[in-house]
Automatic annotation (TrEMBL):
SUPFAM superfamilies: NagB/RpiA/CoA transferase-like (SSF100950). InterPro entries: M1Pi_N, NagB/RpiA_transferase-like. It comes from marine metagenome. This is S-methyl-5-thioribose-1-phosphate isomerase.
Amino acid sequence: VEIIDQTRLPHELVILSLRTLDDAVHAIRSMQVRGAPLIGVTAAYGVC
């Protein structure tokens, strides 16, 4: 899964690849993904 690193917006557009559950957990905890719907989708992809 690829996500936009929301901590870098609006100054940079950085696309990250999440390949493991740990990647998804880190993205959620570090606020690289924000908003309840997007956090839910990221978590779902992380466990698949």
